[in-house]
Amino acid sequence: MAQNPPVGGRTRRRPQARARCALSLLTAGVLAAAGVVALAGTAQAAGALGDAAAAKGRYFGAAVAANHLGEAAYASTLDAQFGSVTPENEMKWDAVESSRNSFSFSAADRIVSHAQSKGMKVRGHTLVWHSQLPGWVSPLAATDLRSAMNNHITQVMTHYKGKIHSWDVVNEAFQDGGSGARRSSPFQDKLGNGFIEEAFRTARTVDADAKLCYNDYNTDGQNAKSNAVYEMVKDFKQRGVPIDCVGFQSHFNSNSPVPSDFQANLQRFADLGVDVQITELDIEGSGSAQAANYTKVVNACLAVTRCTGITVWGVTDKYSWRSGGTPLLFDGDYNKKPAYDAVLAALGGSGGGGDDGGEGACTATYTRTSTWNGGYNGQVTVKAGGSGITGWAVPVTVASPQKVSAVWNGTPTTAGDVMTVRHSWNGTLAAGASTTFGFTVQTNGGTSAPVVGACTAS
Ligand code: XIL
């Protein structure tokens, strides 16, 4: 949001009425701006990683598997901590199009609807990749393969249009080692180097709002492989091929440690005019050594303005794809590890690992209550948990070019593009009781849903 949204204790109005109130809204906006100063420093007291990252203008997410969402501890850890999810396997080609032109989205849809009901963002992973590719794809001849690839991108992106903040359009297209060459795959071998460009061009025609990323591993430091990706991105930017972001998987262990030039590498990509994202972070190890490595990664992202978010590749060590290496922030019993405390501290949240106050004390649930040409009203229900609360705060991110033009039953302040709405008259809630606040968004052509983060109680 470019400006602070105005404050109002008003009830919801029909959109036509809003234009008439433009002047008074503007005045209220100035008052709200003054409120930012008064409240600075008191925001984001919660332990939730997503909130702490949002206060820095970034998301903090986790890879999620649909079949674990029914496990209470898994879901409650996810919901309490993370602001974005990536389906770990459910959006891959073999999962959504196991036979040609027959699409099944049910597992991925479960993750997306869970995320939406909790106000989390969703990363799309992944459209074109040599792995987890169903058997029918690789025997296709070039012309057929081209149309299958474009159809796959089109159908999947259309299904999730407006729900995905960033898509990994192409994953892992370069070889490891010193060659800087493309990896052999059905796409590379039959369509040649141009397949990546074609995939991005197709993706842009389907969803003009999702950020389109190239994603890879062993590209986290400066080396032959990342140099090759760098040259490709540079060429794409020069020729106007639509690419918005580069994902750095960041799977680290003793053979592949956090590179000392990680930040410099992120920065050189950002300097090409793309966002950078840490997309699949996990770091094998334990205790303070693991924690220190996580700190390095978070600090690197925070030091690069265009590093827009971090995703860890799983919620708990128990279900990690590398569970033997215990690479995540929560152990198998969902206890916070030293790595968790380190990440939270690096993000500027409250550390300590113990009970940090508001966590779990309230929840925020978003619904869109009305829509019209050019705008909509959203409503967030704030509900106290097992104990009463005396105040609450909820971060709401509305992506440009959309703008918040009114807020009611809550007091907004802004930090970057995140509007944090605090209680006004309605801060005191008994255990289990709820209240709502609402806001009006002018879409200005944008289609993405607002992202409502975790509630913080005081
Ligand atoms: C992994 C999943 O975590 C596993 O469950 C699955 O068996 C294999 O794929 N790079 C990627 C991810 O882009 O999609 C991979 O995820 C890990 C490496």
How many individual helices? 13
Structural class: alpha/beta
- State the shape: globular
Average pLDDT value? 88
Features:
458 residues, alpha/beta, eight-stranded parallel β-barrel, five-stranded antiparallel beta sheet, 13 helices, 18 strands, 23% strand, globular, disordered N terminus, binds (3S,4R)-3-hydroxy-2-oxopiperidin-4-yl beta-D-xylopyranoside
Task: Walk me through what this model shows.
- There is one protein chain.
- An 8-stranded parallel barrel has the order 1-2-3-4-5-6-8-9, surrounded by 5 helices.
- Mean pLDDT is 88; it is low at 1-47 and 351-359.
- By secondary structure, it is α/β, with parallel strands linked by helices.
- It is built from 13 helices and 18 strands.
- The longest helix is centred in the first third of the chain and has 18 residues, at 22-39.
- It is globular and about 65 Å long.
- (3S,4R)-3-hydroxy-2-oxopiperidin-4-yl beta-D-xylopyranoside (XIL) binds next to loops.
What's the arrangement of secondary structure elements?
Elements: H1 15-20, H2 22-39, H3 49-54, E1 59-64, H4 72-81, E2 84-87, H5 93-96, H6 106-117, E3 121-128, H7 142-159, E4 166-171, H8 186-191, H9 194-206, E5 211-216, H10 224-239, E6 245-248, E7 251-252, H11 262-270, E8 275-283, H12 287-303, E9 307-312, H13 338-346, E10 362-372, E11 375-384, E12 392-397, E13 403-408, E14 411-415, E15 418-422, E16 434-442, E17 451-452, E18 456-457
Parallel strand pairs: 1-2, 1-9, 2-3, 3-4, 4-5, 5-6, 6-8, 7-8, 8-9
Antiparallel strand pairs: 10-11, 11-16, 12-15, 12-17, 12-18, 13-16, 14-15
Helix pairs in contact: 7-9, 11-12, 12-13
The structure holds (3S,4R)-3-hydroxy-2-oxopiperidin-4-yl beta-D-xylopyranoside.
(3S,4R)-3-hydroxy-2-oxopiperidin-4-yl beta-D-xylopyranoside (XIL) binds next to loops.
